[in-house]
Amino acid sequence: MKVLITGATGLVGKAIVGLLQEKEIPVHYLTTSKQKISSKEGYTGFFWNPKKNIIDNNAFEGVTHIINLAGTTISKRWTPSNKKKILTSRINSLKTLREGLVAYGAEKIKGFVSASAIGIYPSSLTSLYVENEKEVDDSFLGDVVVAWEQEIASFGHFNFNVAAIRIGLVLAENGGALPQMAKPVKNYVGAPIGTGEQWQSWIHLEDLARIFVFALNNELNGTYNGVAPNPVTNSKLTKQLAKTLQKPLWLPNVPKFILKLILGEMAYLLFASQRVSSKKIEDAGFNFYYTNICSALDKIYKPETNKIESLGAYENTYS
To answer: Which residues form the NAD-dependent epimerase/dehydratase domain (predicted)?
Structure first.
């Protein structure tokens, strides 16, 4: 196996690369920065520029599997220009990859796994969403994910497996949303957002990386939710975060209108409620290390607390 990864230098990409390197699986990666190109044993970089449909086709040499994580962050103010970047960065990356495969030849490719997002599901306080849900969230993010997955589906014309992982709230110490959520708690000004009743379907970074590798190893096809088995409300997440960090929560909930004034339309990310099921990926044989928010946060902020338990779990990393 040799894996080509887009977005390899990002939060999720680094975690996936780490798993692959543990198994001594060579990695090729695509980067838009020539300064980030390196060539060392088992880890080789290649230049691409999806904005201009440019890709170094040498990146496909010897590759048997592809993981696509490319796309600019959605966590910046949703101005018209940023909205365009959020959408086009995802679509152009996939188009450039696909056209590169056509030019190079895809005969040796066995599997393609792309990131997607649970933002496609409608905001609801009562629904539990599974992958075959037909209704789409009436928001900018919903529109983005629909276009994103349509482009992913175009890889179905090739003769290899194609899977999309709908990612939820990724929990990690040094990236993603968690540090921003933890900062006010650490400074004694943490509080649930709005009513606090909105569902947040989360996943520990380690489990998410394992899902991508699992999808390749098990030749998965179709759409899978990349979330842990037990979603929590924003209020529950905030309270558990404060408990883990041993900080008090004394302020009232943050009013919705204040965050709208500060963040504009992007504040929707904080109030959208998506309770999402992990049953499909579990039925495929995937076993989560972190099934509840307590163990996930303890692993991040109190690594010694569950060190012994984690050592036993590592035996099945690639099962």
So the answer is: 3-225
